[in-house]
């Protein structure tokens, strides 16, 4: 029987989401590899399958969820698909003047159980910004989930923030791609042009 890991890898390859090159990640780190999850959601049937696989992990863990929250832009569709499968509300945060917040009339009610969902987790910075938003509304964070874990850790959130210790993190596939600080990047030193994903056409592998 095909495993979840094998199924997700198949989807990533079919949709051309696995990229090779020289990329500047949203964290500011550089990497020779990138997963462009937006390519997955170009095909609604695959996006729905991804949402179902994440939701299944949440249900199997017996986690009660009232609302799924994802940061724009990468977390918007995956949060929607997970929320659909969990039969919950699905909303997203976005930055305004560089500050992560809820807009567009979205609210989190006091005591609501919140699952924070991302497409890819590397440093966890965006997710931690969402944590602050959720807590400011009095929401109760019950866990985290993403399609890809490229943090190098099983649960980066509890290591970064001790308040999150014990909050589970679910992911579908883990990649240990190398990352470099700009000043240490061998790709830069080799003169390979760096690309911010989405800025121009990139070669898929």
TrEMBL record:
Pathway assignment: Pyrimidine metabolism; UMP biosynthesis via de novo pathway; UMP from orotate: step 1/2
Source organism, top-level taxon: Bacteria
Cofactor(s) this protein cannot do without: Mg(2+)
GO molecular function, one term: orotate phosphoribosyltransferase activity
EC number: 2.4.2.10
Keywords: Glycosyltransferase, Magnesium, Pyrimidine biosynthesis, Transferase
Reactions performed catalytically: orotidine 5'-phosphate + diphosphate = orotate + 5-phospho-alpha-D-ribose 1-diphosphate
Binding site for 5-phospho-alpha-D-ribose 1-diphosphate: 118-126
Enzyme class: transferase
Domain Phosphoribosyltransferase: 44-155
InterPro entries membership: OPRT, Orotate_PRibTrfase_bac, PRTase-like, PRTase_dom
SUPFAM superfamilies: PRTase-like
Residues involved in orotate binding: 122, 150
One GO term (biological process): pyrimidine nucleobase biosynthetic process
Family, per entry: Belongs to the purine/pyrimidine phosphoribosyltransferase family. PyrE subfamily.
Function field: Catalyzes the transfer of a ribosyl phosphate group from 5-phosphoribose 1-diphosphate to orotate, leading to the formation of orotidine monophosphate (OMP).
HAMAP family named among the record's database cross-references: PyrE
Family annotation (PANTHER family): OROTATE PHOSPHORIBOSYLTRANSFERASE (PTHR19278), URIDINE 5'-MONOPHOSPHATE SYNTHASE (PTHR19278:SF9)
UniProt subunit comment: Homodimer.
Name this polypeptide is given: Orotate phosphoribosyltransferase
Gene that encodes the chain: pyrE
């Amino acid at each position: 029987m095909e495993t979840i890991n094998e199924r997700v890898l198949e989807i990533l390859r079919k949709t051309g989401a696995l990229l090779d090159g020289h990329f500047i990640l949203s964290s500011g780190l550089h990497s020779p590899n990138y997963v462009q999850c937006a390519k997955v959601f170009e095909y609604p049937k695959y996006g729905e399958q991804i949402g179902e696989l994440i939701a299944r992990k949440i249900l199997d863990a017996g986690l009660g969820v009232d609302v799924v929250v994802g940061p724009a832009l990468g977390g918007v569709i995956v949060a929607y698909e997970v929320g659909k499968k969990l039969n919950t509300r699905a909303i997203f945060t976005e930055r305004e003047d560089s500050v992560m917040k809820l807009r567009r009339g979205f609210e989190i009610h006091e005591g609501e159980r919140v699952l924070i969902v991302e497409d890819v987790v590397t440093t966890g910075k965006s997710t931690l910004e969402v944590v602050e938003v959720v807590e400011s509304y009095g929401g109760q964070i019950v866990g985290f989930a993403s399609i890809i874990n490229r943090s190098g850790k099983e649960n980066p959130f509890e290591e970064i923030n001790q308040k999150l210790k014990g909050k589970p993190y679910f992911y579908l596939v883990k990649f240990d791609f190398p990352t470099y600080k700009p000043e240490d990047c061998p790709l830069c030193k080799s003169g390979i042009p760096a690309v911010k994903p989405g800025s121009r056409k990139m070669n898929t592998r």
